[in-house]
Amino acid sequence: MKHPGTDPKNFTDGLSQALAKMRAEQPASEMIQAASERVWQRVGQEGAHSVAVESIRGCDDVRALLPAYRSGWLSAARALLVEAHLHECVDCRREAETGKRAAADLQPWQHELPRAGNGGFRWALAAVALIAVGISVYFIQNRLLSGPAGMRAAVVSFDGGLYRVGFSGEQPLKAGDEVEEGESVRTGSGSRAMLRLRDGSMVEMNERAEFNVSMRRNDTTIHLNRGNIIVQAAKRRTGHLYVAAKDCRVSVTGTVFAVHSGMKGSRVSVIEGEVHVAENGVNSVLHSGDQLSTGATVGAVPVQQEIAWSQNLDKHLALLAEFAKLEKKLETVEMPGLRYQSKVLPLLPSSTVLYASIPNLGDAVQQANQLFQQQLKESSVLNDWWQQAQSRKGAPNFSEIIDEIHSLSQYVGDEIVFSVALDGRDGSPLVAAQVQRPGLKAFLEQEYAKHADSSKPAAVHVFDEAGLMSAGPQRKGSGLFLLVRPDFVAAAVDLAALQRFDANINQGSGGFAATGFGQRMASAYLQGAGLLFGANLQAMTAEHDGAHPRGNPQAFAQTGLADVQYLVVERKDIGNQPLNNAELTFNGPRRGIASWLAAPAPIGGLDFVSKDAGAAAAFVAKSPAQMLDDVLAIGAAADAHARDNFDKAESELNIRLHQDLADTLAGEVTFALDGPILPTPSWKVVLEVYNPGRLQSTIQQLVADANEHKKQASQSISTEQQAADGLTYYTIHFADGTKTAEVDYTFTEGYMIIAPSRALVRNAVAIHQSGNSLGRSTDFRALLPQDQHADVSGLIYQNLAPIVAPIMGQLSQSQLQSLQQIAAESKPSVVCAYGEQNAVRVASNSRFFGLDLNTVTLTTLMNLAKPAGRR
Fold first, then answer.
1. What's the confidence (pLDDT) of residue 46?
2. CB of 717 closer than 8 Å to CB of 732
3. Is pLDDT of 613 > 80?
4. What are phi and psi of 143, to 5 degrees?
5. Helical spans, DSSP H, in 74-140
6. 117-121, 464-468, 801-805 — which is least confidently predicted?
7. I need a surface site. Which of 396, 423, 455, 851 has the fewest CB within 10 A?
């Protein structure tokens, strides 16, 4: 491997930089005059072969001197000027290539400068100092700051042609080949490649891309010479990964992003995580879905389009499609029946603050594993993903674990309970279940023996009742303790907790059933229990405050969150219909922030959303004026000067927040993704408004104030309005240099409709007038949970199927097939919230409160379609 200092390319770059610096220097006029006289004197001394060119002004003069230059007749000064021109001018250099004079024919160029007395000694000292500095720089850069020896990247896979390129030509690469410091790698036309860097980061190359890698101590830099790459940066404890394009530098750690370096500039697109971009002296932070272009001629494109060439995108969507198929199959798994009482709950201590109960899922898990294994055989995409996951170091043997869970489930009853009790300031976890079959102790000892490491102290201790009572004191953290009785089995990390549970069994009660929290959990069994979770937030908060007193308890009390009591979450299936409920209760009537969700009421904003919307969220809040009062009360409790600061803010904004803003709003808000999400999401916001005229005046005042206090001349906000179809449509334009954006809105039927374009606002008005809206859709209403409420306080809705059609033309065939498969297998879902006097309740008929593949896929598409250019 060549030393960087001897590489011809580095020499050429250095010469270019030196010439540029020489041209940039501006010597004094006296020095120019003296030099001119010396040059003319030297020119006048040229021999008979001198060429009749008085001065070198351009290419014609240089070409006239070429014969003399080739023959060595020019003076050293003129020859150097000709060489400098040839280095920069391609046409003249080609003409000179017909013959070059030998370097020996050139006479040394002598600087005929006035001699100064004793100057040689000073020049010698300067030369010595220069040499010393050069040696020091070389030592620091190439010894102290250099990276480790060896490879910088290795070829993982490629499709087409992949080459190591340099001055000596191209060398084909194959899988497993290594690339060293400074060596450039290039993909051919129509080719793709995947390389793994020394730090574990993965780099995917598009066709005709080229880069090289350098390391300096803990930092790794990808020098992107051209083309498009996607980088999956590895997590690292020290140093950074950089991507250096010709006009920007990207700094990352543990994220996924793309960089496209083209003729007109570069474009950085973030797929996941956060990156820092430095360009033209400006540092920008980009997040997932953001994009930055280094030049005005490099337009923004959807992130999805920027990485559409990546094989990983196809694999990602294909994998989600396979998960959708698997999810559909798993719905056929027969789940255990509901439980109407618990034998374990009464035996828990009264200090229990966390309670979770699950059915015995041993048989269901085995059925699910069988379906999973069948899907692995049918799907190469799913099988490849699974093999990669299982090949990771330390990955458990999944099938073995399933078999052990199923075997264990045959010994225990229909319920397994997880609990945490307060033991002083510490939590004491416990897992317990009934025993329905003898031989459990021998089974547990046998299973532990199969996995135990004889070289290490025992990590699991299995006791029967007699052995537990005779066991000596054990400190927490010394292992897992198991109690196996004929009637119950329990596990804990604290031997004393296990002994107390054993005593509670013998006494027939532990006190938990007599507490308020215990009674609330016991009541969940009356209607049948499936998955059940509960937390005594009141006791946990009191314990935390006792150990860690709050800095300002009065401010926290004003929020109303100090009144929280219990959180109970339930999930069960009735007639193949999933039912999910969550309830957050309070000690008394909700107040402060806890009361912001209003009681169930009609939500008219949904009448402006089409029934083909991909997602919608709507809620009814209590009066915005009351919410502002709550904020002021919390602020006053936290800071005695809060009211003065509020008055100062109103004075600076030239508005009164109560009268000019809060009093104009009614508290109902609807947000929707209603229309295509690529390349720009079609969002809309619908607000219920009491006083549109006053709100419009407030908006105009805020715009004027923003323009008055703008930080840069290039920043501006302007407004315009236009009447159409009996309504006035308003537009707010935002300008920041080369970036522009707009927000459009109108007022109608007591609502304010806001969207990123006037067309979307008018479409929302048309939907309301036609009555063909989401709120009036029978399919939407069929998704709402059945309960005693006619209305809801809030809801979240999502439906992937309507999104597919508008983006068909922007996806590849394989991506489209995957997305259609996901949409076909998934169902729309709704999660509803109810604000009650002493509680907030959430209910849904979808699986796990709508957190399914719809959510994952919709989130992925939103990240890819996020508007570009945010700086």
1. 45
2. yes
3. yes
4. -115, -55
5. 76-88, 90-96, 119-139
6. 117-121
7. 455
Separation of alpha carbons 260 and 244, rounded Å? 11
pLDDT for res 87: 66
Amino acid found at 187: T
| CB contact set of 573 (below 8 Å; sequence gap of 6+) | 335, 530, 579
Strand partners, 529: 339
Out of 93-107, 271-285, 742-756, least confident range? 93-107
CA distances from 822 to 133, 200, 616, 803, 806 (A): 65, 32, 20, 11, 16
Q: Residue 512: pLDDT above 50?
A: yes
- Residue 390 is encoded by which pair of tokens? 């299982």
Highest mean pLDDT among 102-116, 125-139, 142-156, 460-474: 460-474
Q: What is the pLDDT of residues 411-441, one digit of tens each?
A: 999 999 999 998 766 788 999 999 999 999 8
pLDDT band at 804 (very low <50, low <70, confident <90, very high): low
Query: Coil, strand or helix: which one is 466?
Result: helix
3-class SS of residue 767: helix
| CA distances, 144 to each of 1, 136, 218, 269, 865 (Å) | 19, 11, 12, 34, 45
Q: State residue 6's pLDDT score.
A: 47
Q: Which residue's entry shows tokens 């999944």?
A: 398
Give pLDDT, residue 398.
Answer: 78
Distances (CA, A) of 375 to 327, 390, 404: 11, 16, 22
Instruction: Report the C-alpha gap between 662 and 656 in whole angstroms.
Output: 9
Structure tokens at 525: 């069994």
CB of 250 closer than 8 Å to CB of 242: yes
Q: How many CB atoms lie within 10 A of CB 166?
A: 15
Three-state SS annotation for 30-79? HHHHHHHHHHHHHHHCCCCCCCCCCCCCCHHHHHHHHHHHHHCCCCHHHH
* Secondary element (H or E) of residue 283: strand 282-287
- Three-state SS for 149? coil
CATH class name, domain 148-299? mainly beta
CB 157 within 8 A of CB 193: yes
Considering only CA atoms, which of 351, 543, 515, 341 is closest in space to residue 430?
351
How much is the pLDDT for 564?
94
Delimit the domains of the chain by residue range.
1-32, 46-109, 148-299, 345-532, 576-865
The set of residues, in sequence order, having a beta carbon less than 8 Å from that of 465 and lying 6+ positions away, is: 483, 485, 502
**pLDDT level of residue 397 (50, 70, 90 thresholds):** confident
